[in-house]
Amino acid sequence: MSLVSDLQYAVELARGAGKITLEYFGRVERLTKSHAAARNEAVTEADRAVQRYIVAGLRRRHDGDGIVGEESETGTSITFDCPDPMGRNWVIDPIDGTNNFIAGFGAFAVCIGLLEAGEPVLGVVYDVCRDEVYSAARGHGAWLGTRRVSVNMTELSDASILMMTSNLLDKHGKLPGWIIRWLGQTSWKLRILGSAALEAAHVASGIAHGAVTVNGKLWDLVAAAALVLEAGGALTDLTGRAIFPFDLAHYEGAKVPFLAAAPKAYSRLMEEIRGNP
Questions:
Q1: What is the pTM of this model?
Q2: Is the dihedral of CA 177, 209, 214, 192 positive or negative?
């Protein structure tokens, strides 16, 4: 099957998953995970129901592919079923922005990404409450619905929007210097949506010049990375090193911090991050 047909199917799955989220939206209980990589992170029965739906759909069409998912039925582990870690592996975040979802704040997304040989070759980020589908397949462009999108090609300016996720503390529990610098100025317009995938999607669509995620996981990244890269953006970890190809072997939910940026903004933003730890 071609990546285009794979993408069309993933979009259908994401839309179907979105319908399930709306059945639960505004009436869910906050549960917590208990595995080491995500201890005390929020989860709901909706997350698990959506993941079951997506996994079942992928198994029907791509039974030989691997699957990595944020959730499990018990909350004691992630879903990791990858016979070939460097083969075709789907990476799922059933609800990116679970805390928003629980609070009744309509900024959350269904994320379905595909890694081939460790590279993000396909991604769908479905903004459920706005009914907007961001999608991309390698070599076929990045799209918002039926409109092709690309990253912003201008320099950073007083009109630039930068996205940051809500948990900005580093591994030592402290606020990095670059974040303090950015919060102490008003030239760049800082925005926090609470969904790493949606924030990166706004880079892909040309709205934001950059998006930084400090404490994200692989499922926050893969679908969004396919969008950003296919839209002409840059994406690395917060030291400037390439994230992909990503070796899934033994992945158990470790954090994968990243910077997604427009090409003319990337160097300046990385200079800020490196220079102000």
A1: 0.94
A2: positive
